[in-house]
């Protein structure tokens, strides 16, 4: 049987009952359905689910009526049942399972199971609880026990109940706006994006940001981290973390590499030698011209200065050096001939000079 509450005219204290999972009750037992918050109306009434469309798809508002979530009620005639949660279970929530006996008769040797495996040794405790559930706690749970008296003397096993732990929020995704490769001097905003489910939309998440293993912004309500003026120092690996206010659930994003691009390189103006621009100080001795330059080295394929980028001699440079050496040799020969002629001229003039002196 599925019941849905319809809030119409009248003064009745009802609220939206958010119950999704099936609630199992033993026959002849007593159960009170109580709404959590008052809603003042003028009239109230209930309709079978077949008369209504899915309230979740209609946003709980249909033709002026406000509907609660559907409440699934199961009435059992078994000796033993396992009562599970009556509303969706999200990671971080507590989970309590109760092994309920017919007419609440006393039990002994109670054992709880998940997917066929015992969760502990038998004992008198009829409740099994998990303080903080995770998605890995999902499974099919059931319990077993022995009635002390009255009831059957043999062990009794309850039917399995499916428990699904839903994800509270997905792992956040870190995005850079406008780009993960911004230009130096431009602003950059890092967005830590995740979303809570509709049933937990009133919950709040806290966000923190990290760079290269160090925290750059501690936990806060804002999911954005702004860099007003990016510089090369802001380059690095960033990630963010989203956590609940009670620190029960936290998740990290994958790393995002930020590479700040430096300013565009501009052609540098030619610079002159400052030493050549300095004038000689008054009274300073004149600078003597430098002596003759030493002859250039003979080009060699082993000299890196004469090799091309591929490690082979540069033919053009090799040819120019050869011409230069040939010209230097020619000049040397001419200088030698000039010296010899000067010596001969000097030898011819010496006898004439001696004769003139004797007279």
Automatic annotation (TrEMBL):
SMART domains: IG (SM00409), IGc2 (SM00408). The keyword Cell wall biogenesis/degradation does not apply. This is Fc receptor-like A isoform X2. Residues 70-159, 170-257 form the Ig-like domain. Keywords: Disulfide bond, Immunoglobulin domain, Repeat, Signal. Residues 263-313 are annotated as: Disordered. InterPro entries: Ig-like_dom, Ig-like_dom_sf, Ig-like_fold, Ig_Fc_receptor, Ig_sub, Ig_sub2. GO terms for molecular function: transmembrane signaling receptor activity. Residues 263-286 have a biased composition (Low complexity). One of its GO terms (cellular component) is external side of plasma membrane. Residues 1-27 form the signal peptide. Pfam families: Ig_2. PANTHER family: FC RECEPTOR-LIKE A, IMMUNOGLOBULIN FC RECEPTOR. It comes from the Eukaryota. GO terms for biological process: cell surface receptor signaling pathway; immune response. It comes from Sapajus apella. Residues 287-299 have a biased composition (Pro residues).
């Amino acid at each position: 049987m599925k019941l849905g509450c319809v809030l119409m005219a009248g003064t009745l204290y009802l609220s939206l009952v958010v119950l999704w999972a099936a609630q199992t009750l033993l026959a002849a037992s007593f159960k009170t359905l109580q709404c959590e918050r008052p809603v003042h109306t003028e009239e109230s009434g209930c309709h079978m689910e077949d008369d209504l469309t899915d309230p979740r798809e209609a946003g709980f508002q249909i033709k002026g009526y406000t509907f609660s979530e559907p409440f699934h009620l199961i009435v059992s005639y078994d000796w033993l049942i396992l009562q599970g949660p009556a509303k969706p279970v999200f990671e971080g929530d507590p989970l309590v399972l109760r092994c309920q006996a017919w007419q609440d008769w006393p039990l002994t040797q109670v054992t709880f199971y998940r997917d066929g495996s015992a969760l502990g040794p038998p004992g008198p405790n009829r409740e099994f609880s998990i303080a903080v559930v995770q998605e890995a706690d999902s499974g099919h749970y059931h319990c077993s026990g022995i009635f002390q008296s009255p009831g059957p003397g043999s062990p009794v096993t309850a039917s399995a109940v499916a428990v699904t732990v839903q994800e509270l929020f997905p792992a956040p995704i870190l995005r850079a706006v406008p780009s993960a490769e911004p230009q130096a001097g431009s602003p950059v905003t890092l967005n830590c994006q995740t979303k809570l489910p509709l049933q937990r939309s009133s919950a709040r998440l806290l966000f923190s940001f990290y760079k290269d293993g160090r925290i750059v912004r501690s936990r806060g309500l804002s999911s954005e981290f702004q860099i007003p003026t990016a510089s090369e120092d802001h380059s690095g690996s960033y990630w963010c973390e989203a956590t609940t206010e009670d620190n029960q659930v936290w998740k990290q994003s994958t790393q995002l590499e930020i590479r700040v691009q430096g300013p565009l390189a501009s052609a540098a103006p030619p610079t002159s030698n400052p030493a050549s621009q300095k004038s000689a100080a008054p009274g300073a001795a004149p600078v003597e011209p430098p002596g003759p330059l030493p002859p250039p080295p003979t080009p060699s394929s082993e000299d890196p200065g004469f090799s091309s980028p591929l490690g082979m001699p540069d033919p053009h440079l090799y040819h120019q050096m050869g011409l230069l050496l040939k010209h230097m040799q020619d000049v040397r020969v001419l200088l030698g001939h000039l010296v010899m002629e000067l010596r001969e001229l000097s030898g011819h003039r010496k006898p004439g000079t001696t004769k003139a002196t004797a007279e």
